[in-house]
Amino acid sequence: MHSQEELLDFIKNGHKQYLPHVSIDPVIFGYSDQKLKILLLKWKGLEGWGLPGGYIKREEPISQAANRILEERTGLKNVFLQQFYTFGDSHYRTHEQSLKEITQEQGEDILKGSWLFERTLSISYFSLVDHSKVNVTTDFFTYDYHWFGIDEIPELLFEQNEVVDKALTTLRLQLYHQPIGSNLLPEKFTLPEIHSLYETILDKKLDQRNFLRKMMTLGIIKKLDEQRSIGAHRSPFLYQFEKENYEEALKQGIIHAN
Amino acid sequence: MHSQEELLDFIKNGHKQYLPHVSIDPVIFGYSDQKLKILLLKWKGLEGWGLPGGYIKREEPISQAANRILEERTGLKNVFLQQFYTFGDSHYRTHEQSLKEITQEQGEDILKGSWLFERTLSISYFSLVDHSKVNVTTDFFTYDYHWFGIDEIPELLFEQNEVVDKALTTLRLQLYHQPIGSNLLPEKFTLPEIHSLYETILDKKLDQRNFLRKMMTLGIIKKLDEQRSIGAHRSPFLYQFEKENYEEALKQGIIHAN
DNA sequence: TTATCAATCCGTCAAATTAACGGAATAAAA
DNA sequence: TTTTATTCCGTTAATTTGACGGATTGATAA
User: Fold this and answer.
1) What is the pLDDT of residue A112?
2) Are B121 and A19 a contacting pair at CB < 8 A?
3) Is residue B146 less than 8 Å (CB to CB) from chain A?
4) CA distances from A66 to A69, A82, A94 (A)
5) What is the distance between the alpha carbons of residues A35 and A151, in angstroms, rounded to a whole number?
6) Do residues A28 and A52 lie in contact, with contact meaning Cβ atoms separated by under 8 Å?
7) Cα distances (Å, whole numbers) of residue B194 to B189, B226, B246
């Protein structure tokens, strides 16, 4: 994947191409088997789990950087990806230990003063992706990955549990106001599908009829007059997202009137 | 205030003390005469208006940096200050033009390669302060300040109108869920005072009785059994914030049940 | 062909919340 | 004691939310 030469070049010269002191760390939620999971990578040297991450190119808009980094790790383009917070309080992340391991055989000279040792702020994004479409590629610092159910997240490196928690809170808060489901469901989906998705994300039973009413009232989805033929039972109607309406819902919906 | 020597040292050596590429830019809302205003500074050289800003010290947590920067410009400590977004898309802010003016007499040599010329991401916070308690101090780059009503914000430097807009939207969204008013009102305040504050911030009439009921239901304020003696009229009761309840309200209140 | 099964679909009523509304009480000054 | 400006409060209608179960459909099995 990445040759040792590339790695050494990255350590020595990465700061010429990337902004130092700032990384982008997406919390990637995936959905499969009615479970909500997040993608974590296993660090070389540190032998612990952490979020995928990457650096911003010197001339690259940060939203573009976030999309690029997501694509580099997952292969996915054009998915919902939203910034939610920038961490830089207790979070003095560096790659020191990790790099010592990786570059052991080279001696430690090359590490002296590397940009990767410096304090790094973390601009965090979250994303929801279709688990089955993801093709994970590890990066220089990592060698394995795993999708962890959100109730089985281990203690993470770099104090990233806080990041994950805030991502989840934000996801749930915005669920009715951002086109969050649109990467997880097929273009046309059934009511039970989206219903189950929302129940999973909120970790809560939602009455089916009330759920439908709410989604229709907010204008988030619209009913088509097609049905899908599922195996053995009654054919469910298909629905589609109405993306244009989401942000409206946000503004109208949360600023409590009067 | 700042000597020319200090400025030159800051230009040449600031990157040893501060993280380059990242600034903190608080949108400081002030309230007076029933108007909502923001504090803008006038840039030397560029002759335009922009947000106050500052850099993060190399070992300083960012929330602490934000508070320090706010204090440096306004003299205020311990006020409500909240991060809301990190801008870095179209926002390639540098101090190049400004610095050329300021350091004119020194020749331009010192500017070569200054850390201040590099691209800077902006971690943005907003704050609400009591206009009358603020003691504005300009910084190296600025020489004047003004409180602009939010409906009379000029075109800002560094594409900061976007920042201000997002700050205002966020402020309004969170008004019922964060202890936002607590820096703007005295410890004990009357119902008409807080009512008028909320009307001003939301730019909207709020029915007085319904407003009271809502604040009480959310547990944001509590009624004391003291009254204040105002000049000529009926004595209003006093109220106090119940800060502990705000964040509760956030979690319980926005995640729409069922 | 019919019965069975598993899943989807839908409507009503009660409870809670929100929105609209005006008149009585108070404190000082005239 | 009257006037004036201001605070205080309660009720009703409309809307939204929450709870609830029975009828329909599409295929498979008898």
Assistant:
1) 75
2) yes
3) no
4) 5, 9, 20
5) 10
6) yes
7) 7, 16, 16
Q: Which residue of A has its CA nearest to B85?
A: A85
Domain regions of chain B by residue span: 4-174, 180-254
* A162/A159 Cα distance (integer angstroms): 6
List the B220 CA – C16 C1' distance (angstroms).
20
pLDDT in tens, chain B (258 residues): 567 788 888 888 988 999 999 999 999 999 988 899 999 999 988 889 999 999 999 999 999 999 999 999 999 998 999 999 999 997 667 777 777 777 766 666 677 778 888 899 999 999 999 888 899 999 988 999 999 999 999 999 999 999 999 999 999 988 888 878 888 888 899 999 999 999 999 999 999 999 999 999 888 899 999 999 888 889 999 999 987 776 555 544 333 322
Block residue for tokens 């039972």:
A233
Relative to beta strand B18-32, strand B54-57 is antiparallel
DSSP-assigned letter for residue A80: -
Compute the distance between CA of residue A141 and CA of residue B26 in angstroms, rounded to an integer: 35
Backbone angles phi, psi at B38, to 5 degrees: -125, 150
What's the CA–C1' distance between B253 and C19, in Å?
Answer: 19
Beta strand B18-32 with B121-130 is parallel
Closest CA to B162 of B63, B12, B1, B25: B25
Burial (CB < 10 A; 0-12, 13-18, 19+), residue B10, is: buried
Start-to-end CA distance of chain A, whole Å, equals 58
Q: pLDDT tens digits for B64-95?
A: 999 999 999 999 998 999 999 999 997 667 77
Q: Given this model, what pLDDT does residue A215 score? A: 93
Distance CA A109, CA A107 (A): 6
Please report the pLDDT score of residue B253 as a whole number: 38
Question: Residue B26: is it exposed, middle or buried by C-beta count within 10 angstroms (0-12/13-18/19+)?
Answer: buried
Distance CA B45, CA B17 (A): 25
- Domain A180-254, CATH: 1.10.10.10
Cα–Cα distances in Å, from B137 out to B41, B73, B160?
Answer: 10, 5, 20
In CATH terms, is domain B4-174 a member of 3.90.79.10? Answer: yes
Give A 67-96 residues with CB within 8 A of chain B: 83, 85-90
User: Is A123 in contact with A22 (CB distance < 8 Å)?
Assistant: yes
pLDDT one-digit tens code per residue, B207-244:
999 999 999 988 889 999 999 988 888 999 999 998 77
How many Å does it take to go from CA A232 to C1' D29?
Answer: 12
CA angle B131/B133/B136 to nearest 5° reads 80
